[in-house]
Design goal:
mainly alpha; 2 strands; Polysacc_synth_dom; Protein PBDC1 isoform X3; PBDC1-like_dom_sf; PBDC1_metazoa/fungi
Length: 158
């Protein structure tokens, strides 16, 4: 995998390096690069497959139901950083995400999430989120037709 070569160039060995306990890293700046590379791989998936056919996990139905029950009013088309990162939001997201511990592999690993679903992955349109948050928002975007614009745009430019 291409990202493994990138990790090796940092003196770290692929996914194994990301599975070590957090205290093994200290404040190693290479860790952020490793997470960004892993998150980028996840990010590319969303814009490369027609969303109406995309199944992200075996638990898509459960994740979506719980997400919309918990976050009825959340604007998934245009997320604000505070929707995920404010103290108030964290109090709601934490139990939501924790219900999937042991069900979603690496449920609390970091990944990139687009803020504006009609735009591609760019530095100003991404936020670092947990894998469970990523799945919840992107499954909802797929089901509610919000991801169609990016996919259609990618197809037109291909």
């Amino acid at each position: 995998m291409a990202s493994d070569k990138g990790l090796a160039s940092l003196g770290l060995e692929g996914a194994h390096a990301l599975s070590l306990p957090a205290d093994a890293y200290g404040n190693d700046p290479r860790l952020e690069v490793m997470w960004a590379m892993k998150a980028y791989n996840h990010a590319e998936l969303i814009s490369s497959v027609d969303p109406k056919f995309l199944k992200l996990t075996k638990l898509d139905d459960d994740i979506y139901s719980s997400f919309r029950e918990t976050f009825r009013e959340l604007d998934i088309k245009l997320l604000q950083p505070d929707d995920l990162k404010s103290d108030e939001a964290k109090e709601v997201w934490r139990p939501f995400c924790n219900q999937f511990e042991g069900l979603i592999e690496d449920f609390n690993y970091g990944t990139l999430l687009r803020l504006d679903c009609e735009r591609d992955y760019t530095e100003d349109n991404t936020i670092f989120a947990t894998r469970t948050q990523f799945f919840a928002v992107e499954i909802a975007r797929n089901r509610e037709g919000c991801n169609d614009a990016v996919f259609t745009s990618k197809c037109a430019n291909s």
